[in-house]
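Suppose you are handed a protein chain with no further information: no name, no annotation, nothing but its sequence. What can you learn? This example shows the usual starting point.
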Amino acid sequence: MNKINIQITGMTCDHCAQSAQDALNTLEGVNASVSFDEGLAKVEIQGDVESSLLLKAVESKGYGATMIDGTDANKSESIKTGGSGDGLHIAIVGTGSGAFAAAIKAVEQGAQVTIIEGADIIGGTCVNIGCVPSKIMIRGANIAHIQGKHNFDGVPKRKSSDKPVIDRKAMVQQQQQWVENLRHAKYESILESNPGINLMRGMVRFKDNNTLIVSKTNGSEKEIKADRILLAVGARPMIPNIKGLDDTPYWTSTEALIAEEIPEHLVVLGGSVVALELAQAFRHLGSEVTVMARSSLLSKEDTELGSGLKAALNEEGINIRLNTVPSNITHDGKNFAITIAQGVVHCDQLLIATGR
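A reasonable first move is to predict its three-dimensional structure. Written in structure tokens, the prediction is:
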């Protein structure tokens, strides 16, 4: 068995490390573990695997990879993936993790990068309105849940039938401060320390294959010429075409994560990961929760996972309605009325989590 180490650059979070690790482990005979904190892949190889294949696997996910001297994968010399360092100018539209990974790698290979953002903040979905705030909220909600479920003597415990006492506003304030701190550490600080990446703010349109027009907030426009242009703008929440829905004040995950009020009854449309993790979080915070899924839970995964998760969520008091598609949704200024085949479901808040 050969053991080698690969230095990986361009990662911005643990999800990036997992992505690189998964890419390496698709190679036959390879068992890899990737650390975001160390920027390092530790790889064990059974049989003959060319080092170039390892590097290409990492590169396929948008990261830079360098064999660290002293490792013995086929006695390969240190190889650095990427471009030829020919001083290309690359324009990247978007400032999420994919955009930053590409920008960092391009600069390492000698390019000059202009990265363009139309929003007020940089960092994209993960750090601002996705993975980071959702996991903070879920952790806090789980602690509230444990207060009514633990079996330790000497530790205060509320009755499981009582709602937890929650200062949701304080939770959100702390959560958003942590988001701000991480955004600076993983994104803003990269701009501050890397003169090869220039941030420009504004909305973008194409003039031709190599020219962008950036419309700034002050009304002025700037023309950007680039040898290569990368669109890394992410995706918006997908809103189902349901009669009346557009005329209601529904939430997406963006609004749910920063809501300072806990609904009495929350209905969640969707049966995927985001829908279910937020459904459980609000249940742990004291809401009555109903999940309406178009088919099964986690329909893209093995059926055993969805059925097992349904049983677990039911046990926590979450009402799961499978094979349910609303035909009409209204809002009277206070409550939602959701029409389904079995009748009308009323709630004070509706979360749409049907994908992006």
